[in-house]
Write a structure and sequence with these properties.
Blueprint: E1 4-17, E2 20-33, E3 37-41, H1 48-56, E4 63-72, E5 75-76, H2 82-88, E6 93-96, H3 100-103, H4 110-121, H5 126-139, H6 145-148, H7 158-170, E7 176-180, H8 188-205, E8 208-213, H9 216-222, E9 225-230, E10 233-239, H10 240-245, H11 250-257, E11 307-310, E12 313-315
Parallel strand pairs: 3-8, 3-9, 6-7, 7-8
Antiparallel strand pairs: 1-2, 1-4, 4-5, 9-10, 10-12, 11-12
Helix pairs in contact: 4-5, 5-7, 7-8
Amino acid sequence: MSGWILEVKNLRTEFLTEDGAIPAVDGITWRLNRGETLALVGESGCGKSVTSLSIMGLLPEHGRIATGEILLGGKDLCKNSETEWMKVRGNEIAMIFQEPMTSLNPVLSIGEQMTEGLRKHRKMSRQKADQEAIKALELVGFPRAKEMMKEYPHQLSGGMRQRVMIAMAMVMNPKVLIADEPTTALDVTIQAQILELMRKVKEDLETSILLITHDLGVVAEMADRVVVMYAGQIVEEADVKELFLHPSHPYTDGLLKAVPSLEEEQTRLYSISGTVPLMSDLPTGCRFAPRCQRVMEKCLQAEPKLFQVHENHYARCFLYENPFEGDKR
């Protein structure tokens, strides 16, 4: 890996409501390096998908980027006009959406949807675009790619539609691929195939991947680094091995404990008590404090910043207010 390709700096994304502007992403900062897979992890409602929509310039009408920068190769995408966004989407940054059935147009053939970007961004002839689309479909494991071009989304299984989405994202050879819960609603066998496919595509095309998921098994298999989000903030960031061996924030620790183990006999699965707070009704102090088993008086009064736990490892927790003091290794 040589340098970073995508940087999010102090990003705050808000939604306008009758009660005013409510943040969904609240001042997050991270970098995605070239050829790296960075995982954004957290429960539903933590701000992961809103982060991806902000990066793609696809926020709904009532959503806006209030402050911060999204830098792609040094250029701030937040300053893009809609015309400039059209040049970036699918061309430099591509996205695999959570639900392939609703992301694919049901009235257009797979071929029409596969070649749209090539003809628009690369000004290819229909014949040349068809050839590139067929290559991409073959890359994701379709043996009858030419025939597939004439078929429609409803004729394909869930796993096949997800492969088409990956092929569509990769056909433009983007710098960054955003995968939002790419294995949701797929059975275990198909999940494994999709993950293996993403790994192969990353290696073959040297693409950087932003992986958004709540599945820590997928994170362990795919990610190089992990950013854990809670209530719109980053609460922990570390290399994947470091995070799994030494989870530092109580929220991360709880997420890992909630993963079923094959090695230990469990009569009851662990769960973190409570729920993610509404962004319109955040608790005073640390946002995780009402659910935390290690809460201190200070946590209820002040909001912690990201403290350094170890080299390249940070946690938003007062346990690490003094550098390396809370590190237990």
